[in-house]
Write a structure and sequence with these properties.
Layout lengths: L16 E5 L4 H12 L3 E6 L2 H13 L3 E6 L5 H14 L5 E4 L34 H23 L8 E6 L2 H4 L6 H20 L8 E8 L8 H4 L9 H8 L13 H8 L10 E4 L10
Parallel strand pairs: 1-2, 1-4, 2-3, 4-5, 5-6, 6-7
Helix pairs in contact: 3-4, 4-6
Bound molecules: NADP nicotinamide-adenine-dinucleotide phosphate.
NADP nicotinamide-adenine-dinucleotide phosphate binds next to helix 1 and helix 4.
Length: 291
């Protein structure tokens, strides 16, 4: 059995029940590992049970507690069943990370700027005017409804209890939209807005202890964007990848582990008077004017 590598800080989440949607994804997996290191009982939710179970197994082998669970965050009945099962086997949910989210090729324009000359000439270069509403709907459903529905279901288990916290995952594209990704930018702006709304809504009436915050990760090389930011053959930065690095004062992409400290802080009593914020974790990208 390999021992966990020690975290560079000490946050005690012992026996807290932590539900992480999209937990087996690139960013979610780092959060699941860190939660387990802090003593939480981690439930990894995704549609692919085998993937979630593989991660759970690797966490359990290193001395933590995790279990995988198959559930679609857009299916309310499946969420209710998952929540009931978790409550009866592990206890009610204390921590919810809404990590399921992502983009869709049909919600993206082919070019950064509209160009009447080239529009309609290359079918692979979708213009704004040809964007497919199915792509938009998919991205809004997954990111916004996929955050709202698990919040409805799991926050109910937090009512009247202390030390409960929700962390949503927004994006750099929520502050100012990134070119091309029209649907994703709108959907993540909605996630940030919903984070503030729910933080206010749950701050007094239901329980003073449910805090709702979000992180806004900057740019991470993941399967979703690797070949947008780096060349498939050479691994060199693409023009878009270069632009991002030039606009990032810390001059690098993030790693999933870069998200861990701020996320644990938001989940722990160390941030007990913090609710309704969206924390950029972006190497300074959102602070930099470009000059
Ligand atoms: N990567 C980045 O650079 C970046 C930057 C900013 C924000 N983000 C956001 O961070 C979050 C995680 O991103 P990531 O890069 O780690 O993505 P990822 O690797 O694609 O992971 C997303 C996870 O969500 C799960 N998922 C997707 N649809 C689902 C559904 N309907 N129900 C339940 N689970 C579902 C997937 O598992 P199954 O396929 O098993 O369902 C997958 O494991 C997303 O919200 C993303 O938008 C990412």
């Amino acid at each position: 059995m390999t021992a966990f590598a020690a975290l560079p800080f000490d946050i005690d989440l012992k026996n807290k029940v932590a539900v992480v949607t999209g937990g087996a994804g690139v960013l979610g997996a780092a959060m699941c590992r860190a939660l387990a290191q802090c003593g939480a009982k981690v439930v990894i939710i995704g549609r692919d049970l085998a993937k979630a179970e593989r991660l759970a197994e690797s966490i359990n082998e290193t001395g933590g507690f995790a279990q995988g669970m198959s559930c679609d965050v857009l299916n309310r009945e499946a969420l209710e069943n998952a929540a009931a099962h978790i409550a009866s086997t592990l206890g009610p949910c204390d921590i919810l990370i809404n990590g399921a989210g992502g983009n869709h090729p049909k919600g993206i324009t082919g070019q950064e700027y509209f160009d009447a000359e080239t529009t309609g000439k290359d079918p692979a270069q979708t213009s704004f005017f040809d964007l497919d509403m199915e792509g938009f709907k998919f991205v809004f459903d997954l990111n916004l409804m996929g955050t709202l529905l698990p919040s409805q279901v799991f926050a109910k288990q937090m009512l009247g209890r202390t030390g409960c916290s929700i962390v949503n995952i927004s994006s750099m594209s929520a502050f100012r939209p990134l070119t091309k990704v029209a649907a994703y930018s709108g959907a993540k702006a909605a996630v940030s807005n919903f984070t503030q709304w729910l933080a206010v809504h749950l701050a007094q009436e239901c329980s003073p202890e449910i805090r709702v915050n979000a992180i806004a990760p900057g740019f991470f090389l993941t399967e979703q964007n690797r070949f947008l930011l780096t060349d498939k053959e050479t691994g060199a930065l693409t023009a878009r990848g270069n632009k991002i690095i030039e606009h990032s004062p810390m001059a690098r992409f993030g790693t999933p582990e870069d998200l861990v400290g701020a996320t644990l802080w938001l989940l722990s009593p160390a941030s007990k008077f913090v609710t309704g914020i969206v924390v950029p974790i972006d190497g300074g990208f959102s602070a930099y004017s470009g000059v």
